[in-house]
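User: Hello, can you help with two protein structures?

Assistant: Certainly.
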Amino acid sequence: MRLMSKKAAVLATTFVLASTSGLAFAKANYKDNYKDQPVCPPPVMLKTGWYLGAQAGYDSYRVRENINTPSTSLVVANPVLNATGWVGGLMLGYGDYLSDWFYLAGEIFGNVSAASTNASYFDGTGTYNNKFEANGSFGLAVLPGMKLNDTSLGYVRLGWNWANLKSKESMTGGASANKSNTSNGFVWGVGVETLLVDNWSVRTEYSHTYYSNFTSGGAFATKFSPSDNQFMVGVLYHFA
């Protein structure tokens, strides 16, 4: 009986020692196999924080012109002008994700435009000539958006723009007038921004601005009611 007890004790001791050795070996083997394995990098994502960018595109102004000439002219017209041209400038902003999917940014910009058009109308005795052109513009906006994936987001532009607009009017052999006016108005738009590489992203956007009316001076009292359709492509550098 005593002999059997001794054998049982020896077997139990042997089992414990074997288990301990096995665990130690497995732990050492795990460290040897995995200690030099590379850590998985985080997913590539569109950066947040401060950004600076350059943009270029096309302006298409729609201008309702209610012509009011001197009393000696018989010109009566209410045409819609289309002033088009290239546009480009810079923007500065700050954006961040406020949740896993909701994005919000604030932005300011300044552009230079080459949009212009000419129109002429004959009244039987003389010709009315007009040139409308857009020069610089600037504005501010908020850009609420939605995450499309780790590297892209869609957004809406809501803001206020100011633009320097000019009209030049004349009658053949008669009066002439030039008017320079800073019109302002509400802008809305939609766009998509996508990561290119590292801190660089690209943006495509459409926006529409409803500008305030203005009236020419001098011998003329022509009313101009402008709005602008703008198509832009921008490249942004994110400082984050």
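That covers the first. Now for the second protein you mentioned:
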Amino acid sequence: MTATIIATFYSMLEKIGYHHPVHAALVHIPVGLLLGACILGLAAHFRRKSNFRRCAWHCFIIVLIFFFPTVLTGIMDWVHRFAGAMLFPVQMKFLLAGVLLLLLLAGFYLGRASQGERRSLPVLYVACFVLVSGIGYFGGELVYGQGPPAAKQFQAGQQIYAANCAGCHPNGGNTMKPKSPLKNSAKTGDYKVFLEWVRKPDAPMPAFPPSALSDQQVKDLFDYTVNVINKG
């Protein structure tokens, strides 16, 4: 039921021309504000400026507020693009996000009584930013784990691979079934076999109907897989 609602939501976005992950549109807000909290908090610590401390605290509060919609959109993207597969980068993102939430709540509790005047808060701001950087790193692994740029004639397929396949099949591997990599598998030996597999794969791989990937896009994906992934 939840997956159906999420699919309907993304379908509505595609109808108005929005084809990108929703999570990316929100994630910059808490990251940027947390960086601001770090800079202002450290400046307050060394310059003894109480107004800097209060400003850093206000940034931190907004980070806490935006944590929840940012995580929600991240989960929605994960369900929509990766069918909820528990990939290693996803597991790490969940783990680090859980620790981040605990630190955000701890910082809120510590700073509430003094309205952000506690001198220990800048350390907590920096720790939160380190965690956010780690979350961003594993997010990048999901999106950009497809390897170096391919030759020009295969770049269209590489983009499709990066957007739809690299999370589960980084460099032609298989994070769900390591002993059954995509690279040089029987599914890449013939385009018709590959097309049928993309349209009707075995679970947990999500299906890619023509509304998600056209026949031409699957052909571009096949050409990239055969000529770059298999030969890499």
